[in-house]
């Protein structure tokens, strides 16, 4: 019986609870929700401090509601020993939490919570940034967050808060890192100190801030740290191309990347990103070969630092190497670099020469143990090494460059040519530098391949001796004249030098005479041998004494002979010059170009192909001419634009005369299709719209329901 | 088999336009028409105009002709269609009046009798010369070989009646565009 | 089976009395096109004996036999109303192609300089320039062309049509600029109009060349002698040959003179090789 009464009572109690839950729900919907809705949220959202306050007030209201709704339950179902009472209390609390959770899922609340958390994280970042530690400030912020945390605990919506916090720091940290550390490579920040700084930030303010808001979690710190590492790796991967460009200033950045670059995925990503960047930014026809080569050298060094085994280097350099092989002037650039020749066309790669000097000693040692059998520190190649990966243990990039081609012969040929040119350009027979280079190159290519070069160098040495002999007044043979001192010749052993173009040149009479005397003397000294002059080779020091100025030049013999002719008279035609010098017209023109550029000659304005010596400089006049040209080119651009507009308008007019109304897309595609390529139509839709709007403003067109038509 | 469609004398304008002939070289026709359009647009002769119907097919144009001053057609505007064959300019385009046209040399379907569009066609003609010839045809019909005998009779015989009948057929170009 | 809707225009049987001009024109053109497309624009060389197989008629056969010595032959040209023009133009370039590069260049320079008479006759440059350009292009390619390439170039309708128009305009321009010489031939007693005549008989594409047109063409080019072998049913054992010589031949020796022969059978011209 008692059991029956209890059972009925129990039923009643259940029904009472159900009724109460319903009542609470409708009350909350009617009074609670409107109370937490902030009527002027949009205005408030712009102010972070108010956001915090509003958020706190919302939570406080909800806490109040919580206490009110909870109150009757706490004494009706007060019996802690009664299992039913316990269950009822739990059930009610669940339904209450669900209700409040739904209230908090409101967009505005989410937004405010995000802003609040982000604001505090940003404050942490700033705090770390300027080391003016303001602990009071942090304490204040933490106290504020603790209040929020209390309310969250009351409402038992910790899950929601945790989600929000996690979302925010996953957004905040990458942004923070890319803002703070992108494109900073030179500073020490990027290596160890950077990690310390970040660790301080993470384990310090951020962890403090986050852990006030959410339940303490041992994994939190390591999760945050992982996130930071991940972001830094991504940043490094994205910036690798620039890191290589700024090498060696960017070495600190590499140090850090090396620490973070652990997973296969990251390695693969690094290779792909770097290759893409190379293709987009370097391996195209706009880049100089010398720039590509020096970039390749930096790539070798940078990737060797990043991963000394060279697997990554092997992968990323394949496309660069392939591209370099296809370039015509690669060999020339490399050889010029090794011989430290500066050339406007091939750029400066003298770094190669220095590298040659410093590395050549170790080169042969490397070759001894290619398979690394005696290497006690040997470890297997990484798993992502390409099948044909060969471990090159030195960061020697000369070797890498030489291995671009299957045989070294291409280099040897080029070396002979470059060296020959250098030796011929010499004055005073000083060949110390060339001899040094040659010795270094011999170490690289072997003695036998460079035999020709040896002969060339010896020729110059021998020439020095012979030349001084010829000029020695004490050795004048009876019956001959002493040789005047201005001609110095190099005697070349024809077989060993590269082929010279066999071109003639009519030298000034005085010089020819000296050459003859030189030959005569030579045949006395070396009776078995005969001199054949290569008149186009060599260089001449020229001093021009003009009416108002004296100019010094070192020029080729053809240029010198040309200007010598102007001593006779001040005007020549092109044909006259080319006949007198015994040169073809193209070479003559080129020589003329040199003197015109240097304001020594000018082309007669009234008569083409007639050239006049400028006894007096004409600088001012020339300047005026230049200015004129600049001005007229500006004008034609404007004229062109006006002309184009006139054409476009006649098309639009013609179009709309025959097709009554057209939307802008159709007009655009008509213009694109119909205007002939010679005239060209390159405007985009927006530019067209601007143009049509002007036409509407001028009342030539009208715009009606999405289409343009002619205004009648 | 449908016997109507296979009769040897069958002619369908659809077939004519689409059938490729040995002369077809649509690229050079396109280029030619493009440069003719340019010429037409830039010369901007008042009273005549023409433009391709779509940007994908340059061989179909639509044109507008205003009646010359001092003729019955003064102040009126007519719409025409122009279809260029693939072997243009070696063969004449087919021109029709789309607007109803009451004229001695134009029939009720808009077909035109103009010698330069037929036996006197020459490759040196172009869109502009065609439009100008059509415009002058409005003022100077060839009444010797009319397609519209009534119009030919009234042209000289009864100008007032000519004008009246002509106007009963006239449709404003706005109305035609709306159709 | 013809599916409904495949042909948007309903085909109608044409009553011959009710055909309008336009349709007649189209139909004739269609028939011409069909007939012509069976033959290439410019065919391959054939020995003259091939003609014997075509004719039973004794007059023809004897005339053909009279022609048929040695390497004589002919090259068929499509009968599309442009045959005389196309035959002439092809043969002109074929003969030139056998000459030296310098001669070709001289001929090219000379022929293009004749463009002056087009201006004199009142043709606008924009009207003729496309066609003259095509001729000039061919001149430039000519020195490097094989005979096969030349044939295939002429079978490109785009090229040969343009050149034909150029030659037609030259002939028409010659007539217009020498109106007094030609007027008597054109005058049919009802008052003749030179420009009307040129328009209808020379400028109009696909209109066959008459005697006057050929004479004007030869006169306008001034470096070509033309012989036409008339292969018709007229009495005699040998075909009559009519020669056209330019009235004002060039004084300078620069562009070499050429001799072109055409074979005329009623209504049609082919190229004749002696």
Outline the structure in words.
The complex is a heterotrimer of chains A (712), B (179) and C (274). By secondary structure, chain A is mainly α. Chain A contains 26 helices and eight strands. In chain A, strand 1 and strand 2 form a beta hairpin. In chain A, helix 8 packs antiparallel against helix 9. Chain A is elongated. About 4% of the residues of chain A have low confidence. Chain B has a single domain, classed as Ubiquitin Conjugating Enzyme, CATH 3.10.110. Helix content of chain B is 37%, strand content 13%. A four-stranded antiparallel sheet of chain B has the order 1-2-3-4. In chain B, helix 5 crosses helix 6. The longest helix of chain B is centred in the first third of the chain and has 18 residues. The radius of gyration of chain B is 17 Å and the shape is globular. The N terminus of chain B is likely disordered. Chain C has a six-stranded mixed sheet with strand order 1-2-6-5-3-4. Chain C contains twelve helices and six strands. Chain C is globular and about 50 Å long. The N terminus of chain C is likely disordered. In chain C, a hairpin with a 2-residue loop joins strand 5 and strand 6. Chains A and B meet through helix 24 and helix 25 of A and helix 3, strand 1 and strand 2 of B.
What is the helix fraction of residues of chain A, given as a range?
A: 55-70%
CATH superfamily of chain B, by name, is: Ubiquitin Conjugating Enzyme
Listing every helix as H and every strand as E from the N terminus to the C terminus, the arrangement of chain B reads HHHEEEEHHHH
Estimated share of beta-strand residues of chain B: 5-15%
Shape of chain A: elongated
Strand runs of chain B, count? 4
User: Biggest β-sheet of chain B, characterized?
Assistant: 4 strands, antiparallel
The radius of gyration of chain B is 17 Å
**Whole-number total of structural domains of chain B:** 1
Any guess at the CATH architecture of chain B? Roll
| Poorly predicted segments of chain A | 361-372, 620-637
Shape of chain B: globular
Low-confidence stretches of chain B: 1-25
* Spatial sequence of strands, sheet with the most strands of chain B: 1-2-3-4
**What structural class do you assign from the helix and strand content of chain B?**
alpha+beta
Number of helices of chain A: 26
